[in-house]
Amino acid sequence: MSSADAFELIGVDAGPVAGDPILRSIDLVVPANGVTVLAGPSGAGKSTLLRLLNRLDDPVAGEVRWRGRALTDWAPTELRRQVAMVFQRAPLFPGTVFDNLRVAVADIDDSQAGHVLEHVGLNADLLDREATTLSGGEAQRMCVARALLTDPAVLLADEPTAALDGSARTTVEDLGRMLADSGVAVIWVSHDTDQLRRLADHVIVLADGAVRAVGHLDDLDASNDRIVRQSVGAP
Question: Is it the case that residue 72 has pLDDT exceeding 90?
């Protein structure tokens, strides 16, 4: 993915209260390759920024662009097929795993469904399982599989491992790394500095509604800014 595919935020204010936005006057280019981790203290605006990138929220001021076009120029359904999102708690629909995959592609067949499950490390035998009986890690991977059915260019991940235990967390991290290495840009919110250090190709640190730092870990580890160093777990 080239730099032309990056997200660009220009003078963006965002948040539920127009007079008191969470993000303020944000000018930022978000890399659209590898794994970009959004880091920073709680309340800094990480999830707010992520939600802007596929128009789950719109800014109250400024503009967000992707591939050189304002997001408002994209049909929301087309944008969300190309810029998919997974959440901290996997949203499950009634019915089987197969039924959940059909939410993304209504006419998916058994072979396609089994293949996408195997791509995220799940057995195709799970297709007939009730989705509500999946473990937390299985459910999260199924949701990633559902997102991948639309062949997205970008996967947004809002603390996707926060509710998972150690082994399930590692499995989902490995899946994120695999997707990034295969050409799907991954933009991942995390409070976990160990996870950040395992995954990040790029880091954006937010604090107090502003961009505090952008760069690679080596650069941010050497920062003189205490918040930046804490946010990336600098040694």
Answer: yes
